[in-house]
């Protein structure tokens, strides 16, 4: 059995063109921080209350965008890595 906590940070934190309030420079990080804390809380509850009986494992599913370089140039490869680090790296 596998228990997964699913997090869609883009739905919760990133502003759209219609957003007029909030701080998109800091709020996505606050949301991500709280999502990781909530996953940790659920993982702790599962380990303490259910794991012994269910023998399951825990995982987290992050909804991130995967990037590929447009060309094989160093600039495109480095830009791709920066984009990937921003989308996924801050969670790892």
From TrEMBL:
Pfam families cross-referenced by the UniProt entry: Glyco_hydro_1 (PF00232)
Superkingdom assignment: Eukaryota
InterPro entries: GH, Glyco_hydro_1
Protein's GO biological process: carbohydrate metabolic process
GO molecular function: beta-glucosidase activity
Family per record: Belongs to the glycosyl hydrolase 1 family.
Name of the featured protein: BETA-GLUCOSIDASE
């Amino acid at each position: 059995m596998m228990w997964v906590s699913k997090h869609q940070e883009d739905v919760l934190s990133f502003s759209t063109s219609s957003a007029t309030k909030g701080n998109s420079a800091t709020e996505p990080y606050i949301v991500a921080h709280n999502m990781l804390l909530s996953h940790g809380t659920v993982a702790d509850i599962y380990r303490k209350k259910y794991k012994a009986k269910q023998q399951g494992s825990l995982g987290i599913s992050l909804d991130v965008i995967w990037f590929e370089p447009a060309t094989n140039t160093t600039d495109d490869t480095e830009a791709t890595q920066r984009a990937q680090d921003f989308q996924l790296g801050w969670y790892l």
